[in-house]
Design brief:
Layout lengths: L4 E3 L16 E5 L4 E8 L6 H9 L1 H4 L10 E8 L12 H47 L4 H8 L2 H16 L3 H8 L4 H23 L1 H11 L9 H5 L1 H18 L7 H38 L14 E9 L8 E8 L2 E7 L11 E8 L4 E6 L7 E7 L2 E7 L2 H16 L43 H8 L2
Parallel strand pairs: 3-4
Antiparallel strand pairs: 1-2, 2-3, 5-6, 5-11, 6-7, 7-8, 9-10, 10-11
Helix pairs in contact: 3-5, 3-10, 4-7, 5-6, 6-11, 7-11, 10-11
């Protein structure tokens, strides 16, 4: 469908029309339709004159020679601005800006106080109806009780003092006294995942505690809140503090005595917020490592290791050295190694849904390059060179191949800034030239010249064409 577009040019008309230069004209010749668009951004004082000008286009529409259409639509887009009067040296504008800052600051302060009151009330529910009563009744042992509730009682005490300052309008002073007590939050943050685990175990095994929890949560004060949700509140509150403090600081004049106090509080709270983020990443990585470990049969393939980070996984075809057919293998990429695995037999009575770890390739001193797949073709080939082994991995999916290349390059080029696991430990077996053949499910590093032989170019071309 042909749609000529005209903008900023004069349109010829049968009669003289002064307004014959609209901003935009769209013409649909097949549908015999035209759209005339005029855009105006006048000041408030000139908006009436602009409307008079727009009305003149009603004379232009029927006079157009080459726009002999059944339907012509006029669209006007008018936006205005009010510069406002300015006093000497712009004093009025500065005053208005300060008033806007003060209004924003007041709204933020009001919301901070209201949310802090609710937060303090909810903390009191946990300390009163759970921590204190459980301690008095002895339903849980002291170590189990401390594992679940950690430093929440100390946090409640600190936040009660903060709330008094906030309600009296002393935000800078309140957070200046609050920040040195953030170590209680650090303790709570570092324990939160262990607390959730211990709580689940106790609810499963301790019938008395399970019944006690149900009775307490049924109280009207809890308003249908569960203990699991209430225990997450200190974690969530730190992120809320960060945003509240950032807004308060942004709308506080540097001349205000509270500005420096709020700025220091922002820095201190952001440190705890980053700690929460790092702990979340570590926990999610631990869950990924556990998931991969469960996918692998037996106990010889050890995935769980200190300092190891999961990056990605997926199927790639492994090109053999002697021109045989490429076989799909499942690869797991970690921060320190590339793990190759194969699917166990579906007929196996126990491990039918698992994989057997075959080889672990250390990423130290590894090099990766694209053999094919530089252009927008169908897939490609990656070459991975290790000190004592070489891999050729193929994928028919161009996007997947590029993702693998980027992930491998990043893992090799920028190792994570944490202690890497010792790859020479007993977790990974390092067979020598005289070592016996590795059995199914046994993890080893590949050695020997066999893996260094590259397939012929004819073989590669045949594989890429598959």
């Amino acid at each position: 469908m042909s749609k000529p577009r005209y903008h900023g040019i004069q349109i010829q008309t049968d009669k003289l029309v002064m307004a014959n230069q609209p901003d935009i004209v769209l013409v649909d010749k097949q549908q015999k339709k035209a759209v005339v668009i005029d855009v105006a951004i006048p000041g408030d004082r000139n908006i009436r004159e602009e409307h008079e000008k727009i009305k003149k286009y009603s004379d232009f529409l029927p006079q157009s020679r080459h726009m002999n259409h059944n339907r012509v639509l006029l669209i006007t887009v008018t936006m205005s601005f009010s510069p406002g009067p300015s006093g000497p040296l712009g004093l009025t504008t500065i005053q208005e800006q300060r008033e806007r800052w003060e209004r924003k600051r007041s709204r933020t302060a009001k919301e901070l106080v209201q949310t802090e009151q609710r937060y303090s009330q909810q903390l009191e529910l946990v300390t009163t109806y759970f921590v204190e009563i459980l301690k008095a009744k002895g339903t849980l042992k002291q170590d189990i009780r401390e594992s679940i509730f950690s430093s929440i009682k100390a946090i409640h005490s600190v936040n009660q003092s903060l709330l008094v300052h906030l309600e009296n309008g002393y935000f800078g002073r309140g957070f200046d006294q609050f920040c040195p007590q953030l170590h209680n939050y650090n303790t709570y943050v570092d324990n939160i995942y262990n607390a959730s685990k211990v709580l689940r175990i106790q609810l499963k095994k301790n019938k008395a505690f399970r019944r006690f929890k149900e009775v307490q949560e049924a109280r009207p004060e809890f308003n249908n809140h569960r203990l699991e949700d209430l225990l997450q509140l200190p974690i969530q509150r730190i992120d809320q503090y960060k945003h509240f403090l950032q807004d308060l600081t942004a709308n506080t004049s540097p001349d205000n005595p509270e500005f420096q106090q709020l700025s220091r509080a922002v820095t201190a709270v952001c440190v705890v917020s980053q700690r929460i983020h790092n702990n979340t990443q570590c926990h999610e990585n631990y869950l990924q490592l556990c998931r991969v470990q469960k996918l692998l049969k037996g106990r010889k393939t050890k995935v769980l290791a200190a300092g190891r980070w999961y990056i990605r996984e997926g199927w790639l075809k492994m090109v053999p050295p002697k021109g045989a057919d490429a076989k799909p293998k499942l690869f797991f990429l970690f921060s320190d190694m590339l793990l190759q695995a194969k699917r166990c037999s579906l007929l196996h009575p126990i491990n039918g849904d698992k994989f057997a770890g075959q080889h672990a390739y250390p990423l130290q001193d590894c090099a990766v390059e694209k053999v094919f797949g530089h252009t927008k073709s169908q897939g490609g080939l990656l070459s991975l060179t290790f000190p004592k082994a070489k891999l050729l991995l193929m994928s028919s999916n161009q996007e997947d191949l590029n993702d693998w290349y980027e992930s491998l390059s990043s893992a090799i080029r920028q190792p994570l800034s944490i202690d890497q696991p010792d790859l020479s430990s007993s977790t990974l077996r390092l067979p020598g030239p005289s070592s016996p053949e590795v059995g199914p499910g046994q993890l080893c590093y590949v050695e020997g010249p066999a893996m260094l032989r590259a397939p012929s170019l004819a073989c590669l071309a045949r594989l890429i064409s598959l």
